[in-house]
Amino acid sequence: MEQLLPRFLEYVGIDTQSDPYSKSTPSTEKQLKLAKKLVTELHTIGMEEVSIDANGYIMATLPSNMEKEVPTIGFIAHMDTTPDFTGKNVSPQIIKEYDGGDIVLNKGKEIVLSPDYFPELLQYKGQTLITTDGTTLLGADDKAGVAEIITAMEYLREHPEIKHGKIRVAFTPDEEIGRGAHKFDVKKFGAEWAYTIDGSQIGELEFENFNAASATIKIKGKSVHPGYAKDKMVNAIHIANQFLSLLPPNEVPEKTEGREGFFHVHKIKGEIEEAEIELIIRDHDAQHFEARKQLLKDIAGKLSDRFGDFIELNIENQYFNMREKVEPVFHIVEIAEEAMKSLDIEPILKPIRGGTDGSQLSFMGLPCPNIFAGGHNFHGKYEYVPLESMQKAVEVIVKICEFTAIQIK
Ligand SMILES: [Zn+2]
């Protein structure tokens, strides 16, 4: 367990920012730098079948130490950090015995991590916090997960008295740009189910996420001299405006929470001749999700009737709620819940207002709930992780291996 912190600090020191505009896998060469280090480390701690494929996906095996057949399970974390904020030259600060006060991240820039703004900090009073220096993100999302999985495997290697079945681990590139699962070889992984260690605060256990689609609405107009435009001009800007006015005004991210879905318009550009709207649809409920897509079609149809055939609507599904794939094998959530309870961790089961690699993997045949990695305030300079939460994540992984072997007949 002593290696957990040094490991984590070493990983966050390697810039692994992914790039949504790149077409290659991994999207950035630099992710391979961490990948190579992890391959070496997996060998060092005695893992078997260590492999890295042409796309940078790493897999390894901890062999079973039991006679009896038990299910092969897996643990997965991602190596990249978000393109939204720099992960270059990460210089972590370690705050021992956090006193519950303000943490000055950067004196010169007056950047302060304060419980006034982030009250969750107070639950970590007395613990060791790892923060940024205020100029970069930390990368606990998800290098905490990577360090925790490796440390748990090392722990199991060193404690053969803990009986477990065959354990598979995987580290993936490009999760932050939605492509972490795309080239994941589920068959090669060969686990009956798995867990991503990619959640936030201690206790999080997630098996529900949004159904997600994106939509583009292209509107063609007709420009005519405004003085002579009567019954001739078609102004694409006005049609775009009408389109937006027909969406439910309260079903937007800033007015919804829990299981409430939304439309989120994130881009609009327009001239008289042409306008374009980009939006995303999110909903946990499959029927509501379909109804939202239908609403867009209805609005496009209505406006086409009124203005002629000037509107082109294109909807693409992005990912689906994993709940339907996890519910039939719900014991995989229960094992994680029991693992947490046995360690005095209160499980926090809540629907994710987003997606995970696990949702895609679940639909690829590998049911895959998400477990906390311990960090807070992902994707920005206020990101931090309590060391104690990371240690608990390691213990949860170990317990899940142990309980799977005991409980499954
Ligand atoms: Zn993540």
From TrEMBL:
<keyword id="KW-0031">Aminopeptidase</keyword>
<feature type="active site">
    <location>
        <position position="80"/>
    </location>
</feature>
<protein>
    <recommendedName>
        <fullName>Peptidase T</fullName>
        <ecNumber>3.4.11.4</ecNumber>
    </recommendedName>
</protein>
<keyword id="KW-0862">Zinc</keyword>
<feature type="binding site">
    <location>
        <position position="379"/>
    </location>
    <ligand>
        <name>Zn(2+) 2</name>
    </ligand>
</feature>
<dbReference type="InterPro" id="IPR002933">
    <property type="entry name" value="Peptidase_M20"/>
</dbReference>
<dbReference type="GO" id="GO:0005829">
    <property type="term" value="C:cytosol"/>
</dbReference>
<feature type="binding site">
    <location>
        <position position="176"/>
    </location>
    <ligand>
        <name>Zn(2+) 2</name>
    </ligand>
</feature>
<keyword id="KW-0963">Cytoplasm</keyword>
<dbReference type="GO" id="GO:0043171">
    <property type="term" value="P:peptide catabolic process"/>
</dbReference>
<keyword id="KW-0378">Hydrolase</keyword>
<dbReference type="GO" id="GO:0006508">
    <property type="term" value="P:proteolysis"/>
</dbReference>
<dbReference type="InterPro" id="IPR001261">
    <property type="entry name" value="ArgE/DapE_CS"/>
</dbReference>
<comment type="similarity">
    <text>Belongs to the peptidase M20B family.</text>
</comment>
<feature type="binding site">
    <location>
        <position position="141"/>
    </location>
    <ligand>
        <name>Zn(2+) 1</name>
    </ligand>
</feature>
<dbReference type="InterPro" id="IPR036264">
    <property type="entry name" value="Bact_exopeptidase_dim_dom"/>
</dbReference>
<feature type="binding site">
    <location>
        <position position="78"/>
    </location>
    <ligand>
        <name>Zn(2+) 1</name>
    </ligand>
</feature>
<dbReference type="InterPro" id="IPR011650">
    <property type="entry name" value="Peptidase_M20_dimer"/>
</dbReference>
<dbReference type="InterPro" id="IPR010161">
    <property type="entry name" value="Peptidase_M20B"/>
</dbReference>
<feature type="binding site">
    <location>
        <position position="198"/>
    </location>
    <ligand>
        <name>Zn(2+) 1</name>
    </ligand>
</feature>
<comment type="function">
    <text>Cleaves the N-terminal amino acid of tripeptides.</text>
</comment>
<dbReference type="Pfam" id="PF01546">
    <property type="entry name" value="Peptidase_M20"/>
</dbReference>
<keyword id="KW-0479">Metal-binding</keyword>
<feature type="binding site">
    <location>
        <position position="141"/>
    </location>
    <ligand>
        <name>Zn(2+) 2</name>
    </ligand>
</feature>
<dbReference type="GO" id="GO:0008270">
    <property type="term" value="F:zinc ion binding"/>
</dbReference>
<dbReference type="GO" id="GO:0045148">
    <property type="term" value="F:tripeptide aminopeptidase activity"/>
</dbReference>
<feature type="active site" description="Proton acceptor">
    <location>
        <position position="175"/>
    </location>
</feature>
<dbReference type="GO" id="GO:0008237">
    <property type="term" value="F:metallopeptidase activity"/>
</dbReference>
<feature type="domain" description="Peptidase M20 dimerisation">
    <location>
        <begin position="208"/>
        <end position="303"/>
    </location>
</feature>
<dbReference type="Pfam" id="PF07687">
    <property type="entry name" value="M20_dimer"/>
</dbReference>
<keyword id="KW-0482">Metalloprotease</keyword>
<keyword id="KW-0645">Protease</keyword>
